[in-house]
Structures are given as structure tokens and as C-alpha cells.
Amino acid sequence: MRNSIRMAAQACAAVSSLSMILALATPAAAQSAVGDSAWPKVGTETQVDFEYDHLSPKHDRDGGALNIQAGQQTLIELDNRWSVSNLLTLQPMQSLQPGDHRVLADHGLFAEELFARWNNQRVNIKVGKFAQNFARAWYLTPGLYGQDIVGDYALGETLGAEAQVMLGDETFGLHQVSASAFMADRTILSESLFYNRGRLTRDAGGSANTSGLKSFVVSYDATNVPVGHAALDYQISLASLGHGVDGDKDERRGSAGFNFNIPLNGSVEETLRGRFSELRLLAEAVRIDSADGISGQRRDYLIGAVEYQRGQWVFDLTASDRRSMDPFAPAVHDKLQSVAIGYSLPSDMVVAVGLAHEVIGGQDGILVGLQVSQTLTTCDRCLIRGRHY
Amino acid sequence: MATSTLAGPFDTLFGSETSLPASAAVEPLHNPVEYRSENGRLDVTLEAKVVRTKVGKFEISAATYNGVYGGPVLRVKPGDTLHVTLINHLKQVTNIHFHGLSVSPKGHGDNAMKAIAPGESWDYEIDIPADHRAGLYWYHTHAHGFAERQLMAGLSGMLVIEGFQKAEPELAPLKERLFALKDFQADSHGDLYRVLKAYHRDIRTINGQLMPRIDIQPDETQLWRLSNQTANAFFRLSLEGHTFRIVGRDAAPVPHPETVNEVMFGPSQRLDVLVDGGAPGSYKLVSERTLTGPQGDEFPAQNMALMVVAPPASGEAKAAGLPASSQMVANAGSDMSKATMTGNRLVVFSSDDATGLFFINHRIFDHQRVEVKVPLGSVEEWTIRNSADELHIFHIHQAPFQVMSVNGVAQPFNGLVDTVTVPIHGEVKMRIAFTDPKIVGRFMFHCHILEHEDKGMMAQIEVFDPKVGPMPEGMQHDHNMGGSMAGAAMPMHDAAAAADTNVGR
Ligand SMILES: [Cu+2]
Predict the structure, then answer these.
(1) Residues B22-163+170-309, CATH architecture
(2) pLDDT of residue B469
(3) Of A330, A186, A192, A287, nearest to A245 (Cα)?
(4) Is residue B255 reached through a cis peptide bond, with omega within 30 degrees of 0 on the bond before it?
(5) Please, is A378 exposed, middle or buried when counting C-beta atoms within 10 Å of its C-beta (0-12, 13-18, 19+)?
(6) Given this model, what pLDDT does residue B46 score?
(7) Does A261 touch chain B (CB under 8 A)?
(8) pLDDT tier at B331 (50, 70, 90 boundaries)?
(9) Where are the domains of chain B?
(10) Rounded-to-integer distance, Cα B462 and Cα B466, Å
(11) What does DSSP say about strands A329-344 and A349-360: parallel, antiparallel, or unpaired?
């Protein structure tokens, strides 16, 4: 959940006024006096980002956009095992193009996730609309622009069922296997309010846009594997996506990646003094064959990121790479390097600035952005806590 | 309503402090109400009741024992019987845990599994062994699912087993001051918030007082006994122009006292520290800003008290100072570093953002399940691993332990403790002796950040007599007494609890 909100956050941009944020803060703060201990427990969390992005392609017109990106998460716990989760997202429905000058334009509100969940801490089953557990860099990569290229391979907007099972005990970390069957969402949930992106139809084609559950993901996730006094996470996943009416072959995907959290200054005393520091390394490779269901189309992705966090400050660097090979067109090599700095305030507000250099379709561009993000929550711990940009 | 809910964010948006100035320190620090044992017995009735309580300029919906926010102090001696009649006037279940005591967890003993239903009462009859370690303990509500808010509302107090100063003769003449340190977050109506946030303005108190004055003479040394009775908060205390000499941790005297500029201690931990008066003047006792990690909590700084150093008024007795060559006498329990271990165990603290649950070994608390079964006579080495981006603080009932290493760094023996904070992505190794026949039975170990405990980070252990074997699964040692948390009489999340979940109302 945090992921999709985070991911969405990258897509847009922001400057904000304090009064606007505090006005938004009112409902959540007032609700927090409501009880949450007897079943059902209802928790909500809202994250609002204001972001301003400026795009300067070298040989084209400048573009700029002021956008809001908001996520509203509701978690209804019926008991210790059953829960229902919903994520409403408000975001601009068009990406920033050279020559654009937009202020709060094209914003649509839609249900990004809506699912029921059953878990007994070893087995976890989800049914409904949710993002598939395929690869992780599309939501874990830090920074304002770090997810711009790898966001491509997120498998969101899908309906299906997923089972995840924990293997063994936690001596060598948490090890889980998951499997899911799904299809593209063509229900009313694929539409959006305000700016309506329109309902997805079968005629629109695309991978997983099938008549039934003809797409599958299988993943192996290892979390908090102790390596010295650092924590390693890794994931290997495979996917097969049924082709749509415009395709001729099922899409095949594979991914491998890791995320390594290395506390540098992590004693209890230094943590309490606010001087905890940590280095995070992230890398992921994804290969897609028969991309979009077209035989011979291939996409290769590679991303690396380094994040350094100290107290309330976060610094990060990312580099990502996409190679597109089509049978009847020259290969295209897109690149993006980004840097960002963020600071968290005690009010759960994060202020961040980012800079990126991109080469997309052979065209160079520079992106600069400022983001102000505020999180409001009525759950002790659901969803997004801590840093979230 | 709107203005009040916004007052917090505005005040603290940029980390501005909400504490009182030195000029506000007028009232002297009071000692809380005390109940002392007589002729080997302390019989006391504690009524858990919702009361409106004045704390400085704030009036909050507190829930206290006998109306005392910060808690009445219970004073007993080794060998005494402590008899507490708890009357539950709340609209939720509650109970009492006697933190740190090595006594029986069964029946009417220190039985934290037992839930006392609204309107009911329960008698705790604790036989304190004649050889029990003297020191500063505390008692508090342990009602799983409600512990955080009930404790924050006030349901806790200090429990002193007399004799700490006798074991350390240098301490005997010193003035003893007790500090029950608590915190709350309330809205403008005085109702406590459910979700604790830095921007809700965390108010910290000493014995229910805001910014009291602490008097000391220039040549005087005082023994300050600090008890962290917050639900979730860590303290990082500093005293302007002064140092602290740590002579006790949890209940145990430390064999190697340490002089520090700031003392840090987490929820449920206790510290005995020596403070020297020094040059006349006024010095602020400050609770410095603390953070518990990237996924944890932040607590802003606050002025806690003002220490006023002044010579004695004429006619007043000269207070005692600490002899320069003081040698602390160790009475800290036995060093287990050479002991033979009968077993090893791993305890993993983790949490799940998607469900909001907190785990021990990837399970939430289940009163029917016993995570660990240990035959009496075992001495075990446990590894506590923190697989989270925030601090967790391990506590086990009934059995104090020795910290052997933190992140692989060996720790010298410095007394037995009942709590230890585990670094982020780190490991603490500790040794526990399950050799005292009095602790046979089922009890708990958990994270003492009560938000985490309420959300599942707790598990049961059973110490069993190897001649008899462990109890059958699902059975409680008090199952025939009615009202067990496991029993049908009062399950944790029943209709009565659902009817009113706000302890402050
Ligand atoms: Cu914890």
C-alpha cells in the first residue's frame, strides 16, 4: 500500500501552503479519539503530496506542472484474521510532457486497491483488486524520480487472488512463497472520478487484458535475512501474462533483486539521540519477453540505488536503464539518473527536492522538483509510517 | 474542536518545545502517597477508576489507582506478604502485573494472564521471598489489548522492596527521592488520543507534577530513583551542569557504577542515580528529544523539573554527602558467564505494515499457545533479534537475566535486569536461569512498548516441574478460578469491552 502511494508520489510534483495541509489534517486528528480496540478496528491513513516538477529538454520547449498526489488508505480489521483494505488514489492522469504548463490539471480519483485478506501469520490470502507481487523496485526505489522508468513494470490495476506461505522459522530471516492468478481490471473500478480515464475494455488490448484469470505470478521473498548486523531482503519472481486481443503471444517476465539495510550508527543510545544512520543498497533486474503480448518485443530493465539516512535526513542516488528491442524497429536505450534530499518534520511532514537527468527516446532532459508530503493517520501502525517520499 | 486539534500541529510542526520555563517551578516535588507493610504484611485495596485529574494547567480523563495519578507507592520488605485487592470500576477488563518480581505466576500470585472483568474484584496475594532482591520495582495494568491506554491514563505505581540502601552502606544516609515518570497525549477536552504522534504534544510528568522544584544542598548527594512508567516513551534525561552516577538498573545495584551526562531508559526500566548538589543555583532537569528509529516514534524535548541548590537554612540539619572513596557492594545476582547452558533460543521481533500487527517469531499473542516450555533447572541463552526499523524493548516476567552481548560486543557483568532494548536490525544475547521453583507456571515475555504488546508482540512461556511435565495445551493454571483471559467468563474482546473502549470516559 505504502508502495502504490509512494509510487504514485513519484509521478507528480509539489509546492504547498501550510494552511492547506493543516486543513486536510483536521478530520484525521479529530477521528483519532475514536476507539479502536474492539472489533472491528478501523484505521485510516491519508498521504497528501504537493509537487512541482519542471522539465527542461535540451532541444524542446520547457514544461512544468503543479500536482497533488493523494492516497487514502482504509483498513478494516474484522478480527485477527480477516480484514478489508482499500486504497483511493488521487493523481494527475497524464504524465508531464515538454511544453506542458499545468496547475492541478487532469486529476482523477480511483480505487487503486480493494481487497479482502485472511491471514494466520503463516498463510496470507488476498482476493480482490491489488498490485501483484512481481519485482519491488517500482515501489522501493527512493527519491522523487527514482521510480520513473521502473514504474513501467508494476503490475497494478489487476483483479485476482494471491496466496503467500511462510516457510520454516525465522532463524535465517522470513522466507515466503507466493502465487497469484489475475487479470486486468475492467470493472467500474478501472474508471476515475473528476478526470475520468474511462473504463478499460477488452478492445484496448494489452497484457493480462483477458477473458479470465490467465495471468500468473510466482515469487520467492526473503525478508530480514541477518547478514552481520544488517538486514538483507531479496526477491525472485516469474510471471506469465495472457495476451490481449492485440497480441499474439503471452508475455513472460522474470525479476531478481535485493534491498540491503545496513545500520551504520545504530546503537540504542545513538538511535535515541536521533543520530541513527543507515545505508540502503538496492538493485533489481527485470526481463520481459513478448512485451505487451507481441512476439519478438523485449524489454530489459536494470536499476541501482543508494540511500543514506541520518536522523531526519535522507539522501539518495538512483540510476536506471531500459532497453527496448522490437523486431521491426531500432533498439532504444533509455536512461535516468536522479538525486534527492528529504527531511522529515515531527508533524509527519516530509519536504524533499529532487533532480534527474533522463534520456528518453533519444531526447535529453533535466527534471527538477520540490515535494511536500503530509501523512495523517488514525491507525497505530497501518500503512505508511516514517519516511515516505 | 477544530482549533484545539490544530493547536498541536501548529505548536510542534517544526519541533518547537511545549515545556514550561524555569520560572514555573514553584511547587516542590512531592512524594506520592505511600502504603507500607507492617508486621510482615501489606494489605491494600486499589480501586481502578476513571477520574478527572489536574496535571498542571491540564485536566485529563485519567484512570488511576485510588485517585493518584502517578500511583500510590507500595513499600514492602523481603519476606513480607503483599495483599492487593483490585476493584475494577472501569468499563474494560484490567489486572495488575508486579513487574520484576521473582514470585509465583500462578493463581492469586503475579498472574498477568488473569483478567478482572468490569465491576469485579480480585485478590493478589504475593509472598515475597525472604531472599528476594531489594530494589525499585513497579506494578501496572497488563490487560492485553488495553495496556497502552490504561497505563497512559494512569494505572501504574512504584513498588519498593526495602533494603537497596542497606546493601550499599554508602547510600543509607542519603535522601531518597522517588520519580514516577509518566506521559500522556490529550486533546483540549482532556481525552487521551488513541494514536500517539509527536504533533499531539506529549506531556511528561513526575509524580503527576509538571515542572516541580527539587531542593538540594551544595554538599549534599541524593539518591534519585527513576521509574519509567510510560506506555511507549524512552527518556533521555540531562541535568544542567551536573552528571548522574548510575548505581542501580532495574532493581539491581550495579557492581561498576558509571558517571554519565545523560541517562537513557525505556518503558518499564528503572534507574537509581546519585546526584550531587554542587554550586548554588538553579538547574533544569530536561527530558531531551528522543527518536526510536526510522519507523518509530519521536518525542520532543521538555523541561521536567528545576533543581535548586541552596545552603541549608539556619537550624536545618546538614545533609549527607557521599564518601569520596565509596565502593559499591555488589548484590546484583550471580554472574552466569561461566554457567553451563542447557539450551539456546531465538526470539525475533518483527512487524507487518500491511496488517498493523507486531510479532514474536512471526506470531501474535495467543493466550492458548505456549511458545516456550522450559523444565525447571534450565539455564538458557536467548538471542533477541530486532527485525524492524525501530527499537524494541524485551521484558520477561518472573526471571531476571544477564545481558551477555549487544550486536556481538561482549558486555561485562553489571547486574541482572528484567528489560533490555534491542538495536535496530541488531541482536542481544542474554542468559536466564529458570532454577527458582517459585516461578513454575505460565507467564509472558514481550516488548514493553505497550503499543507493540497490545498489537501482538507478546508470547507465553511455561516453566514446568520435570517430574510432572508441562500443563496440557489450552489449559490455564487458574482455569478453575473463573475470569481467566482464556476462559469463557471474560474473553479479551467481549461485548463489555466493545461497549466502551475509551478508558478515559
Ligand atoms: Cu516493540
Answers:
(1) Sandwich (2.60)
(2) 87
(3) A186
(4) no
(5) buried
(6) 96
(7) yes
(8) low
(9) 22-163+170-309, 343-483
(10) 12
(11) antiparallel
Q: Let me know: does B266 contact B234? Beta carbons within 8 Å.
A: yes
Question: What is d(CA A170, CA A325) in angstroms, rounded to the nearest whole number?
Answer: 42
User: Within a 10 A sphere around the Cβ of B493, how many other Cβ atoms?
Assistant: 18
Residue A57 pLDDT > 80, yes or no?
Answer: no
- Tell me which amino acid residue B482 is: G
How is residue B194 written as a grid cell?
Answer: 488513541
Q: A47-56, A105-114, A318-327, B494-503: which range is least confident on average?
A: B494-503
How confident is the model over B91-108, as a mean pLDDT? Answer: 93
A34 touches chain B (CB under 8 A): yes
Q: One-letter amino acid identity for A218?
A: V
CA torsion angle for B248, B250, B251, B257 (degrees, to 10)?
Answer: -10
d(CA B231, CA B210): 18
Q: Which residues contact A8 (CB under 8 A, 6 or more apart)?
A: A69, A71, A89, A91, A112
Q: In this structure, how many other beta carbons lie within 10 angstroms of the beta carbon of residue B294?
A: 23
Chain B residue with CA closest to A166: the answer is: B362
Grid coordinates belonging to A137: 523496485
Alpha-carbon distance of B310 to B281, in angstroms, equals: 7
In chain B, residues with a C-beta closer than 8 Å to the C-beta of A231 are: 387, 425
Compute how many other C-beta atoms are within 10 angstroms of the C-beta atom of residue B145: 22
What residue in B sits closest to A262 (Cα-Cα)? Answer: B425
List, for residues B477-500, the tens digit of each pLDDT value. 554 333 334 333 333 333 333 334
Residue numbers in A near B387 (CB within 8 A): 170, 173-174, 223-224, 226, 231
Q: Is A56 on the interface with B (CB under 8 A)?
A: no
Under 8 Å between Cβ of B269 and B230: no
Eight-state DSSP code of residue B193: P
The CATH code of the domain at B343-483 is 2.60.40.420
State how far residue A173 is from chain B, nearest Cα, in angstroms: 8
CA gyration radius, chain A: 21
Grid cell at residue B282: 538553579
Predicted pLDDT at B167: 73
Per residue in B414-446, pLDDT (tens digit) is: 889 999 999 999 999 999 999 999 999 999 999
B18 falls in which pLDDT band (50, 70, 90)? low
Of B5, B362, B501, the CB nearest to A166: B362
Averaged pLDDT score across all residues of chain B: 85
Q: Which residues pair with A295 in a beta bridge?
A: none
DSSP structure class, residue B301 = -
- Shortest CB distance from A2 goes to which of B199, B289, B353? B353
**d(CA B386, ligand 1 centre) in Å:** 9
pLDDT-derived band of residue A160, with 50, 70 and 90 as boundaries?
very high
Which of A196-210, B1-15, B316-330, B438-452 is the least confident region? B1-15
Q: Look at residue B368 and tell me whether its pLDDT is greater than 80.
A: yes
> Mean pLDDT of all residues in chain A?
84
Nearest to B233 by CA among B137, B304, B145, B332: B304
Assigned C-alpha cell, B362: 512471526
pLDDT, one tens digit per residue, over B114-173 is 989 999 999 999 999 999 999 999 999 998 888 888 998 899 999 999 998 887 778 888
Taking CB atoms and an 8 Å limit, are B425 and A169 in contact across chains?
A: no
d(CA A105, CA A94): 9
Please indicate whether the domains covering B22-163+170-309 and B343-483 agree at the CATH topology level: yes
Distance from CA of A225 to the nearest CA of B (A): 9
**What is the mean predicted confidence (pLDDT) over A10-21?**
30
Percent of chain B predicted with pLDDT > 70: 86
| pTM attached to this predicted model | 0.88
Tell me the residue type at A254: G
